[in-house]
Amino acid sequence: MSTNEQRRAAAKRKLERQVQRREAKAKRQKTIGLVAAGVVVVVAVAAIVWFVVGRGEDSTATANPGDPSLPAGAVIAPEYTGELPPFTHYAGLGRDCEYTPSGTASKPNTPPRAGEVPTDPATVSLSMATDRGNLGLLLNNGQAPCTVNSFISLANQEFFDDTVCHRLTNSPSLSVLQCGDPGGDGTGGPGYRFADEYPNDQYPPNDPELQKPVRYPRGTVAMANSGPGTNGSQFFLVYQDSQLPPNYTVFGTIDETGLATLDGIAKAGLADGAQGDGKPAEEVRIKAIRTD
């Protein structure tokens, strides 16, 4: 082999080694990037779970509903946000509603009937009168019958009458008004708890998807809780699309009049100029909730 050919062969081998090193480096960087992205997702989900579930109120956290809230200004990357799953009817829906004693009732009431409850009619219309305006609620009895059964029972017993909506959130990822605690401090409940329904019941048990945020659309009515199976009387009204794991039972929607009322409440902001999470600047008092 001539000297020129030897030089060309050596140069070719050197170039091949350089290409191999670049490819290996790029592969390492891609792996690191994927791991970092995974860490971001895990941290984001962990933050949701901690702030949504972990902020229970000391000793009452397991006995009474907790907080469907995120820290002020929290933003979950949109690419990690999914949608609520389509509802699929299953054989046991509404056939075994259990209302288990839990803590002390914040206001006297009789627990609703347990066992099998009707899923027909599929929807039930209620009116929620407040001192800031009225809200029309359409409860989805066909998807969350145990929840609707409890809510209507409490409404008919005047459990919600003359109670305040104690929390307003206005972070980019959580925009809700929370109500349903007669004590007005977020620790109260009806003295019983019951299981989660839609969307939680559309996933297999322990499905990792249950820890990933989904969009709770504007106009949603959902139950607050402090963990699996801790639904009570506290509920929240979504006035802007919000992001939460699918562990909060969706049981109704709000009409346009109600959304206008919520928009006015949200526009007034939080008490003492707070941002993200706190009491509404203008007190919101429920006068009554009744079936139409």
From TrEMBL:
Keyword Isomerase set for record: yes
Source organism superkingdom: Bacteria
UniProt keywords, alphabetically: Isomerase, Membrane, Rotamase, Transmembrane, Transmembrane helix
Gene Ontology molecular function terms on file: peptidyl-prolyl cis-trans isomerase activity
Known EC number: 5.2.1.8
Cited InterPro entries: Cyclophilin-like_dom_sf, Cyclophilin-type_PPIase_dom, Cyclophilin_A-like
Chain positions covered by the region annotation Disordered: 1-27, 99-121
PROSITE patterns, sorted: CSA_PPIASE_2
Keyword Cell membrane attached: no
Residues covered by the PPIase cyclophilin-type domain: 133-291
Membrane-spanning intervals of the chain: 31-53
Purpose: PPIases accelerate the folding of proteins. It catalyzes the cis-trans isomerization of proline imidic peptide bonds in oligopeptides.
Protein family membership: Belongs to the cyclophilin-type PPIase family.
Name listed for the protein in its UniProt record: Peptidyl-prolyl cis-trans isomerase
Organism per entry: Mycolicibacterium brumae
